[in-house]
Please model this.
Amino acid sequence: MQTVTSKDGTKIAFDRVGSGPSVILVSGATAYRAFDPSMTHLAELLGQHFMVYNYGRRGRGASSDTRPFAKEREMEDLQALVEDAGGKAMVFGISPS
Model:
């Protein structure tokens, strides 16, 4: 597990696997990387061709949180991950229905 620091000081935990162009996986609102085997499996598969960031959204798992919640903070979290990836990344999000 590694971390990046978001603009407001929140620590965002992530696992990184593979090599190649960067892809950031965004899990659904109630999941996080340690409890979402489907995203972990997807990261492993994509890791054969990409550098995959599988992160815990703020307030989930090992990622900290700073109140109050605002969707802008989630975008800042993604920006911190993109910066860690070298300034360029694809983003894939999924939410179970």
Summary: The chain has a mean pLDDT of 90. The first helix runs from residue 37 to 46. DSSP finds two helices and five strands in the chain. The first strand starts at residue 2 and ends at 5.
